[in-house]
Design goal:
Helix content: over 70%
Strand content: under 5%
Largest sheet: none
Length: 52
């Protein structure tokens, strides 16, 4: 489990995560300024970690 939290991302991985997050925002009706956006960003990162 520790390895899961210590995984680091390079520029390519961060670009993918950012693109997914930005694509999801308009579909969800959530803006970056809303508190829910932080929770969603964390979920996207965790899902990416699980798939890596």
């Amino acid at each position: 489990m520790r390895e899961f939290f210590e995984k680091t991302f390079g520029p390519a991985e961060l670009s993918v995560v950012d693109a997914v997050f930005k694509a999801w925002l308009p579909e969800s009706g959530i803006t970056k300024e809303m508190p829910e956006a932080e929770l969603a960003a964390r979920a996207v990162i965790n899902l990416f970690r699980e798939g890596s």
